[in-house]
Amino acid sequence: MANIWEHPSVVAAEALSHLEDALILAPLCAMDKTSEFTTRSNGWKVGDSVSFRTNGEYEVKDFTTTIDVQDIANSSRNLTIEKHLDVSVEVTARELALDLDSFSDQVLKDAMYRLAAKVDGYLGEKILQGAGLYLAGTGALFGSAADVSQARKTAILQQLNSNRYCVLDRDLEATLLGSTWYNQDQTRGADGTDTLKTGRMGPLMGMDLYASDSFPTNSTAFSAGTMVCLTNNSSGTKNLIGDTALTVDGQTASRVVEAGDRVYVAGVRRPLKVKTAIADTTSTTSVELVDPITEIIPDNAAVTVIGSGKDHIYHGAIFDSKSLGVAFPMLDLPESETAATISNGGIGIRMVKAYNITTKKTTLSLDLLCGAFALDPRRITLLGEQTT
Question: Which residues contact 379 (CB under 8 A, 6 or more apart)?
């Protein structure tokens, strides 16, 4: 039998297959599979970035005698390579003499599962950049079919495509699997029977459900602000598509808005996410936003904070394949080492085996570069539950 190390690309491909099997969140992200990120090495490193553009929306008007020309309101977002993740292990002559199946089982599989968990944890943090928020009462989140349908309704207002994902943390997964309306065949047919037998969640109300230990449930509850006010468009000069601030007035005295608040504007589909806290919004106030305005903001429309004055914890999110963007740029191959890089479907990894004459040890290094961002935060709806 030929030594597997005569064909390092085979070892790298085996490692990549385990990585792909273990990843939960990465396959749900948008990937540019033809990008130069994944087709060639180019000295990519942490800190390199590429710009993505998202488009705003436009108002449809009745034509009379002349058209009303609107500006193209675009916003750009950068995907930055933020992570260089590595798993390096010492290998002896015993491991190096194993066939591919044995080496894969004893070394590659465990290493790739740990690496996948790290990647998913990083991607999970990006979900929290979502602009949408569905907030349920204490103990009510996904406790009934009615609550799930309300969460789905909120997500639809974010204009998701038909292929929707719903990622839950383990607490919310346990709530769902333990609900009789969810796991009985008289309510869900064969899906309910399968869930009760195997614990697999499957699809629900047009959403593909996934559970992940990497969803970043906040250990400290987020305290929402209490601002209550009206939009002030200043005779058509404020609150325009592309603006990065929402101008408001008519507030109830001494109300606060917190960084991270999602505010709802009456007549607008999507919430706006607040960037900077304001301690007192009594007078006419410019509320700085994380992302530019993308919809027509009515004048004198009521503005409220979702979950006003309530503490809440995130337990999941609903999004689609255009919500998150991720890239795994190719790493350079070192000279004079047994090494290979491989990419499939936008996910790539490098494998290097090297002997150190100083330490008299052989090291197997498996590493990858990763960058991710909320490609369109408007398409992400967080699932929160009140704690107060």
Answer: 130, 132, 158, 159, 160, 319, 320, 322, 323
Q: Looking at the predicted structure, is the pLDDT value of residue 260 above 90?
A: yes
**Contact present, 126 and 374 (Cβ < 8 Å):** yes
Is the C-alpha dihedral spanning 181, 183, 186, 190 positive or negative? positive
Higher pLDDT residue, 340 or 1?
340
Tell me whether strands 164-168 and 207-211 are parallel, antiparallel or unpaired: parallel
Helices 8-22 and 109-127: crossing angle, nearest 10°? 50
Q: Is 99 helix (H, G, I), strand (E, B) or coil?
A: coil
d(CA 378, CA 126): 13
Domain 225-309 class in CATH: mainly beta
pLDDT at 92: 87
Residue 265's pLDDT is: 95
| Adjacent-strand bridge partners of 363 | 90, 354
Q: pLDDT tens digit string along 223-242?
A: 999 999 999 999 889 999 99
Cα 151 from Cα 136, distance rounded (Å): 9
Task: Please state the pTM of the whole predicted model.
Answer: 0.82
- Token output for 349: 């990894």
State the Rg of the chain over Cα: 25
